[in-house]
Model the fold of this input.
Amino acid sequence: MKAGYLQFAPRYLQPEANRETVAELVTDLDADLLVLPELFPSGYYFKSQSDLEQVAEPIPEGETTQALLQWASDTGTTFVAGLAEREGGAIFNSAVLVRPNQTTETYRKVHLFYEETERFDPGDLGFPVFEASTRSGQTYRLGIMVCFDWYFPEAARSLALNGADVIAHPSNLVLPHCPDAMPVRARENHLYSITANRFGTETKGDEELTFIGMSEICGPTGEILRRASRDEVEIGIESFDPHDARERHINRFNDTLGDRRPETYVTQ
Done:
C-alpha cells in the first residue's frame, strides 16, 4: 500500500480556507491512505469556548466530513483527519476515518492535553480498530490515536491487541518528544504508524504554542521510513505491506504480543 501524512499550518478559525488548502494539495493524490493533522479545519489553541463551539460540527453531516467524503471519492484514498466533533451537547476532539465507498468511522481522543481538558469532553469510544482496504483491494486493520495519546503506551498497545496493522495518528504536537517516541511505539507493538502533525504558531493572550512539524511514518522494527521538516508543507508517502505487521515473532522463541504475561502486570 501507499500511505502517508499531509503536513501544513491550519489557520485559526478558518475552516473553509483550511479545507480549500487541503483540497488543492490532494487534487492529484496517489495514495491508499492519507492522515491529516488533529483539528485541521479549525486550528488548535482556542481563545474561548465560544470559539470552539463555532467550529465544532457533527460527523458525518458536517462540512468537513462531507469534504473528506468527496476527496475520498475523487482520489480513491482513505482519509483519517482530526476535527472538533459536536454530538448533542458534547464536543469531542475527534478523528474521522473516511473510506472511498463513502462509509465513515469515528475515534474520540481519550487523553486530553493541556487546556483541552477544559474545552473538550473526553473520548468515550475506547480504542477500536477498523477494517480498511487499498485501491487494489487488499484489506488491512487500521487503528487511530490522536496526538497526546502517544504519551500513554496503553493506547498503542490496546490498538495492537485489537489487531491493528497501522496506526493513524493525527496530531498538533508541541512537546519535542513524540517524533522519537513513535518509533518505539511502532517497534514495541510491531506495527506501522503514521503521525500527521502541523507547524506554525498560535497565541492566546501572552501565551504562545509552537507546533513542531516532523510528521513521520514508522515501521514495525522501529525504523523511521519518512520524516517531514519542522516548518514546510509536505505530503509524505511511503509504500509498504501492512500485513508485515502481523508477523510479530522476535525470534523462534519470542513473540511481541504472545509473550505478554498480563496476570503479572499492575492494571490500575
The two ends are 38 Å apart (CA to CA).
